[in-house]
Amino acid sequence: MTKPSNLLQGTLDLLILRTIQLEPMHGWAIAQQIRLLSRDQLRVGQSALYPALHKLEQQGWIAAEWRISEKKRRAKYYKLTAAGRKALKVETAQWERLSAAIAMIVKPA
Description:
The chain is α+β, with helices and mostly antiparallel strands. About 55% of the residues lie in helices and about 15% in strands.
């Protein structure tokens, strides 16, 4: 299992943006969705997740609002902004180039 500290710089931002692309989510749900979609290979702890969410919010890529969660608790929900949708496209393209380059080294033809 990969820990967030082992993820390449910027990868967590991409994972968060992609996770909330379809619907707003609170922090715990974002972490659980990343774990679920990675088939339990990636676990994002609070110590990595919340600073990343705060940074993305400061950049204007995500917006947050307080809502009542499905467990009837007050939670901050995060959603993608228009700038975040543009950033997601750029970040995804950069990730695809980087992962292709790494694959050329790891699995030479």
